Amino acid sequence: MPDAAVKLVPAWEVPKRGKGGSLASRQALLHSLVHIENAAIDLSWDVIARFGGDPSYRLPRQFFDDFVRVAHDECRHFLLLERRLEGCGSRYGALAAHDGLWESAAATAGSLGARLAVEHCTHEARGLDVLPQTVARFRSGGDKESADLLQNVILAEEVSHCAAGVRWLRHLHAVARQSGGQGVDAAAENGEQQQQQQQQPAAGAEQQVAAGAERQPAAGGEQRPAAGGEQRPAALPEWAAEAARHASVETWFHSLIRKHFRGPLKPPFNDDARAQAGFGPEWYMPLTAEFIDGQAAAEAEAQQQPANGQA
Question: How far is the C-alpha of 151 from the C-alpha of 156, rounded, in Å?
């Protein structure tokens, strides 16, 4: 949770931060960044504490390693930015802030897939989108130190944080799609073996899980004889059944965002940084207002064509 010294207000009551042309504006920009990093620290630990022990996910060791590293990075970012804010003559808590990130966390508390999609693949990705503009504002305002800190230290590490979200969303989807008859336990156990062999746990996860499908299922994921001696697949957890309905991780991501995130995604997008994090335009462009409006217009036109043809 945010520091008790910070006054929390609705997002629409947070004062405008400006474009960095004045000291007060740069202080407001830095204060906002410090506040975001403060929330990000707790969110990183929360994803471990809230979902790490849930047996329906069977998460391997590298999941915990990834988000401990993310938490460490976010803590260091907080301290660096807080020090910079103080160097500019202000302090954390001097300005009001909103609690939007924790509101999203509360809304996704029941689903690891939703948490990864909203917090790490959407909110954190939005940070990548706006960071170049923020850097430019500090530079134009003569604050080279803040600009260099964001561009040379924080940006690359934030890319890796988005990558963690993408990586583990891919992992969950791969496990769900391949678990079918063998159950999540067996699919996850197969996934753990690959996690130990690769730095990127999601890379090739689908092939690895599929390769393990012929092995003896783990306890809890076994197939039980049904009436008449037929094999009956173990019941899937709700999250896995939902994920398995989607042929690709991208369409599952779209479904999660439409369900758990308010409104369309807004450009501009930092395509290069997002690509480095492992997700291209096929992830986010279908969730923009322009795409949604265009799709609706095409559907309306298609519905009118038969009627026009009969006239």
Answer: 8
